[in-house]
Structures are given as structure tokens and as C-alpha cells.
Amino acid sequence: MTHPPESGSRRFSRRRVLALLGAGGSVGLAGCGTGSGDVRYGDERSVDLPTTVDTNASNASAASAAAASAQLEGDAYAVQLDALALRDHGMVVRDDYRGAVVQGSIENTGHQRIELVEVRARVYNSDGEQLGRYLDSTDDLAAGSTWSFEIVVLEDPADIASYDVAVLGSLA
């Protein structure tokens, strides 16, 4: 069956309208975040870490294992989302290959699954200079679910005076 030319162009217009509506919906969902691309970190938290524990800085094998576990590069599509709530966090020193870690939990308080959740930590020395930025991430955090994170920090615990964290995510 053939359609008159105007019918075909009308169909093209309907497809185009539907495509634009779909793109608009995606942009609308992306707007559920709270940021304009800038990452907002929470208040800086001071730490008093033990320096007598054998950490990854003193053992080449442990340092290599920690470096393999540490995540340094974040996802460029991750933004701050209102549905992600940082429930708790703290810094401890593990007596294994991980050494200094920032641990805590994040809850998806929203009504839809979040495809990517990322928590970033920046660590500082006693002079306030940033020593590094590290992260942990997970995929597919269901609505109402809580995720426990552990960020491996590749700095000597004796050098760390404080840290701060930011929680990011991506819907799709």
C-alpha cells in the first residue's frame, strides 16, 4: 500500500515529535540532580589515625594489591542526585593490604533504580593540602536499598589529617 506524500511527511513529523518528547523526558530526568556539573563535597572531617599499624606503605606486595583495588577515575556522567543519601562515613586503618580506607553507607531514598552510584573522597594533610582523590562505585542500586562502600586510600595514614566525601549517581 502506498501513502500520499503528505501522509509520509506527517508520519515523519510524528516520529520526530516522539523522539523530541523522549529526549525531553531524559533531560527532565537528568534535571532531578542538584548540581550543574560541579561536585559538592561535604564538610571536611578531621581524623586521628593510628600510625603504628603496618600499612600498605611499608610492604610492596600490599601496596601493589591496594593500588589494584583503589579506584581513581570517576564516571563523567555521574551527577549529584537528591535520591542518594549519605547515611554515615568514617576513616579507619585496616591491618591488611587496604591500609587507610573511608567507609560508610549510601541509601537510595528515591522511587527508581539508580544505574551508577559513586562516592568520592578527598584526603588532606595537616597543612590543608589535598593529597589525593579516591572513589568507590556500584551499579544498580534499587529504590530503598542501602550500599556499604569502602574507599581504598593510597596515602600513608601518618600523612592524613582530614577528608571529605561527595556522593554522585547516574539514572541511565
Quick structural overview:
By secondary structure, this protein is an alpha+beta fold. Helix content is 21%, strand content 35%.
Number of domains: 2
Order of helices and strands: HEHEEEEEE
Distance between the termini: 39 Å
Largest sheet: 4 strands, antiparallel
Strand content: 25-35%
CATH architecture of the largest domain: Sandwich
Uncertain parts: 1-36, 52-56
The radius of gyration is 22 Å
- Report the top-level CATH class of the largest domain: Mainly Beta
Structural class by SSE content: alpha+beta
Helix content: 10-25%
Describe this structure in words.
It is a single chain. With 172 residues, the chain is α+β, with helices and mostly antiparallel strands. It has 2 domains: 1-30; 35-170, Sandwich (Immunoglobulin-like). Helices cover 21% and strands 35% of the residues. It has helices at 5-30, 60-69, and strands at residues 45-46, 84-93, 100-108, 114-124, 130-141, 146-152, 162-170. The strands form 2 sheets. A 4-stranded antiparallel beta sheet has the order 1-7-4-5, with no helix packed on it.
Provide key terms for this protein:
21% helix; alpha+beta; globular; Immunoglobulin-like; four-stranded antiparallel beta sheet; single chain; 7 strands
Layout of strands and helices, then pairs:
Layout: H1 5-30, E1 45-46, H2 60-69, E2 84-93, E3 100-108, E4 114-124, E5 130-141, E6 146-152, E7 162-170
Antiparallel strand pairs: 1-7, 2-3, 3-6, 4-5, 4-7
